[in-house]
Amino acid sequence: MALIDTKGLRGRRIKDRIFSSFVWILTFSCLAVVFIILFYLFKMGIGSLNWALFTQGPKPVGESGGGILNAIVGSLIVVVLGAIIAIPLGVSVGLYQADHRGRRISDWVSVAVDVLNGIPSIVIGIVIYVWIVKPTGKFSAYSGSIALAIMMLPPIIKNTEETLVLIPTTLKEASLALGASYYRTTMKILLPTGIGGIFSGCIIGIARIAGEVAPLLFTAFGNPGLTFNILKPVDTIPKVIFTYASSPYDDWHRIAWGGSLILVTFIIVLNAIIKIFESKWKVQF
Amino acid sequence: MEGTILRTENLRISFGDNLVVKGINMEIAEKQVTAFMGPSGCGKTTILRSINRLHDLTPEAKVEGKIFLHSEEVNGMEAMTLRRRVGMVFQRPNPFPTMSIFENVISGFTLNGIKINKQEKNEIVEDALKKVALWDEVKDNLNKKSTALSGGQQQRLCVARAVAMKPEVILLDEPTSALDPLSTAKIEDLLYELKSNYTLIIVTHNMQQAARISDRTAFFYLGDLLEYDDTKKVFTNPKNEKTQNYITGRFG
Amino acid sequence: MKNRWRILENKIFVRWLSMVTLVTMVLLIIFFITLLISSWPAIKANGFGFLWGKTWDPVSNHFGMLPFLIGTLITSFLALIISAPFSVAAALFLGEYYPKGVIPNIFRNVIDLLAAIPSVVYGFWGLYTLAPLISKLEIKLHLPAPGVGIFTASIVLSIMLIPYSVSLIRQVISMTPVSLKEAAYALGSTRAEVITKVIIPSNISGISAGFLLSLGRALGETMAVTILIGNSPEIPHNIFSPSYTMASVIANEFTEAVSDIYLSTLIEVGLLLFIVTTIINLIGRLIIKRVSI
């Protein structure tokens, strides 16, 4: 007869039940927290969503109303400029990495990119301050964009590399066999074929920087006025949330909640786009 | 030999420490179909790919010796120019997935930045597709994505793509091994038609295919050229014992 | 002629690719050098005592980092400890209990939503919801009750860490060879036993690496912590005390720094932050690489 320890077996079964209950409870707590926070955000922010929020700049202390138009424009400027800087650079490195996979140099670059990814964003802000803000003596939108661009590089590089590596070599060979140069093969065949994954990486990068404040604290700094000049300091949505949240004024808090709702909705939409992309847009080879 | 278009002189190719092709001297006749045959690893595909210098892409590959296209040395030429004169069809059909059928056929020109007007484009595409007997099947759907075609049609599209460039030589690396028998038959007919205008070199594992469509056959074994003669002679009266064994199926 | 241009454009392109890649790789070194040079005046002036100096006095230019060091370490470790059971549980739930199916997929996406909320919004939320609750708790415990402090910041920080550590731990656990698990089940083990006696022990280095990387993440978190930490440059008495972290002091005081040495000192804090997070990332990455093979 097989060795069966019936008394111990019951104890083990009970332990198993307790364990899985814990796993369930803890997991559901995580889900609950998500709903609590998002619901609260919605509740507090929905009341502030009015036309003025989107079309007006901040009002002076004491006056009620006003909006964050300056911050919305500022965010757009800083993010778009950051993307314009980061995308060509990131895709280029991704290309290089895909071509040199398995070689020493590409391994070192991978390490560097991973470490770059882990640098606290405020440290990046310090470095850009030293490089640009201090010598020019001015805060500016473009210095903020450069800081954000550095933060965008790792996801763009990784996604580009991973997408391009999946493209069968035979496609590249077919193009070269027709007499095309490496440059033309890349621009006309490889990049278009991999555009889905590359685009995904760019959106991930944008989602990451859209809510950042730390690197902008001493680069783009802030600006209560509306400006389209990239040489001037600008406010961004997360920055005004920070400023207003740290203030004692209820009015400002209200606006900050409206801004928070807009910001979080934007980022969630971006994440949804990424997820849909990753399942649908796959060019058949 | 008269009508020689390609000639190799002591062609040796190694990958790292591995010597794969051990000094090949051969001449390829113009406007004929030459078949490269032999068991896996004999070097036939390696030799084929050295003709259009695809090994330039592999840093571990070392190509020694000379290859002559007419009287020009292949390694002295500009690689991109060479590849416009020597076309290639690959084992798995590989039309460019982001391009339509029309754009695929004309891709040799667009990728090389050669400017041609719309009328010329239409003529080239129609001509090439007719040559590969694909025109009637796709003429109303030229703007569809190339991936909408069946495997056999895609491969014919790839031949059309190569043919559109009006190359002097077309290299084919096991072009029908990934296709069903019906498509294979269609491609073989097409290759037979093409040889009146182009020189074809085809690597094949399929002996019957070599026997059917080639004029001359080269038998390779472990990097050496063991036998090279008219196809009829190689198949009915092979001089080398290994050729005989391969043909009768003693090894493969 | 046209041919020459094609060759040239190709050459330029290939050069461009290697150049950009080289610059990216060297970027880290450039960062380090920049921080080092800019903090050098402070390093010379403050000396080694900076690391355990207790007072932070910008007025008399006497700088000591100990309060921030303590604040940073306690908040980060506390956040890690609080989040650990939740992250491990969720990772097990999604990896072992329900690896496939529509509902777990939804759960995974919901947990990922936590990553979509920016740091500053977390801080704002914590300020409005958590801080008053903690304040009430502090009153009950007869402590001063500002509501903000290490504990509040740690809780919010732990929530922020969850999506990150869940995905890391899931990755690690998924690499357990199926044969190992099957062998344990075949011997009649319960699921809890397979998890606690086989899966977790065999992946312990990977899981530790996951925690290490989460710690690195926590150390660098700025905005949420700045809003909730209480911004007090004193050494904290207990976990409810207001405190300060390295990242927060930089965030708050950088633009107010009136003297060069003040600014340089703040950059020195940034340099230390850079060094610590880089080392942690390198080690964590190394461990995960070892385990992935």
Number of separate helices of chain C: 11
Rounded Rg of chain B? 18 Å
Report the structural category of chain C.
Answer: mainly alpha
Helix content of chain C: over 70%
Task: Characterize the biggest β-sheet of chain C.
Answer: 2 strands, antiparallel
The N- to C-terminal Cα distance of chain C equals: 52 Å
Verbal overview:
The complex is a heterotrimer of chains A (285), B (252) and C (293). With 285 residues, chain A is mainly α. Chain A is built from 11 helices and no strands. Chain A has helices spanning 6-46, 51-55, 69-99, 104-118, 121-136, 141-166, 169-177, 182-193, 195-210, 237-245, 250-280. The termini of chain A are far apart. The model of chain A has no long low-confidence stretch (mean pLDDT 90). Chain B is 36% helix and 27% strand. Chain B is globular, with a radius of gyration of 18 Å. The two termini of chain B are 31 Å apart. Chain C is mainly alpha-helical and 293 residues long. Chain C has helices at 2-46, 66-97, 102-116, 119-140, 150-174, 178-186, 191-202, 204-220, 223-228, 246-253, 260-292; strands at 56-57, 62-63. In chain C, strands 1-2 form a two-stranded antiparallel sheet. Chain C starts with a helix and ends with a helix.
